[in-house]
Amino acid sequence: MAILSPAQIFDHAVAAGVAKTGRKFLSTLVLAFLAGAFIAFGAEGSNMAAFNLLSKPETYGLGRALAGAVFGIGLMLVLIAGGELFTGNCLIIAGVLDRKVSCSKMLLNWLVVYAGNFAGALCIAYFMNVSGLFSGGGGLLGGMTIRIAAGKTALSFWPAFVLGVLCNWMVCLAVWVSYAADELPGKLLACFFVIFLFVTSGFEHSVANMYYVPAGIFAKANGAWAAVSGVPASQLESLNWGNFVVKNLFPVTLGNIAGGSGMVGALYWLGLK
Questions:
Q1: Per residue in 15-47, pLDDT tens?
Q2: In degrees, to the nearest 5, what angle opens at C-alpha 91 toward C-alphas 273 and 47?
Q3: Exposed (0-12), middle (13-18) or buried (19+): which is 108, by Cβ within 10 Å?
Q4: Which CATH fold topology does 6-272 show?
Q5: Per-residue DSSP letters for 111-162?
Q6: Distance (Å, rounded) from C-alpha 13 to C-alpha 241?
Q7: Would you list the DSSP string of 7-51?
Q8: What is the mean pLDDT of the chain?
Q9: Residue 219: which of 121, 120, 117, 133 has the closest Cα?
Q10: How many CB atoms lie within 10 A of CB 188?
């Protein structure tokens, strides 16, 4: 199994950016929808696996670790099955800096992919809400879904931004190191541990939040799940679409761009070119 050097990884990232920005609109949108759904599957699966551990302070860290072990399947599906993920596409900046991709094409790709990711994640959030699975554990899964969403919409701008930076620094590194391997086992192994670290740490991923927060907004309409969540009424009221966009999605997205494009794509361009 061949392993690419860091300089070769950079060239691979540039070529990937050229291919991504050259893809047709409909293809990009469909692949973005799939990637949003894949990340949402990872998010709901990690909640299902760890909700009872996350509900107790003494097992919270263990719950984060278990969630991290499951969540990475979402990115694996994006990388192997195929998908266009906004956070990973922040690496297109490598092609821009290498003068192989125009800034306008990168921004257009980000816009289309972001919209497609949102649609895919929202679809899974809705399906999970109507599936009845949130009643698992005596409704505790639904309650934890609400609690997670409420915590995310309660973040102030700066912490949300910084958590977004740290998150996509890790996510783009996961994509970056997966480029080093040319065979499936190597790619999976390379990205798993980096994603495991990001989720266990509790960083903020804009596309994952397109599942987490809408799922919580949908779930809070169920009185039993809302009661089990333990979230105060005032905070439940603040869990709404407006606060999701303004207090979480906007700052986290900006942080994701800074973390992925700045701390990975740009810094490796400075260090390797």
A1: 999 999 999 999 999 999 999 999 999 999 999
A2: 145
A3: middle
A4: Glycerol uptake facilitator protein (1.20.1080)
A5: HHHHHHHHHHHHHHHHHHHHHTGGGTTTTHHHHHHHHHHHHHHT--HHHHHH
A6: 35
A7: HHHHHHHHHHHHHHHTS-HHHHHHHHHHHHHHHHHHHHHHHHHHH
A8: 96
A9: 133
A10: 17
| Cα atoms in the 13 Å half-sphere on the side-chain side of 164 | 29
Q: Quick one: how far is CA 50 from the chain centroid?
A: 18
Q: Are the C-beta atoms of residues 163 and 206 closer than 8 Å to each other? A: no
In the predicted model, is pLDDT for residue 209 greater than 70?
Answer: yes
**DSSP letter (8 states) at residue 221:** T
Locate 152 and state its tokens: 């995310």
Residue 3, beta-bridge partner list: 181
What are the tokens at 107?
Answer: 């921004």
The token pair that represents 146 in the structure block:
């609400």
Residues contacting residue 184 through CB under 8 Å, at least 6 positions apart: 80
At position 207, the amino acid (one-letter code) is: V
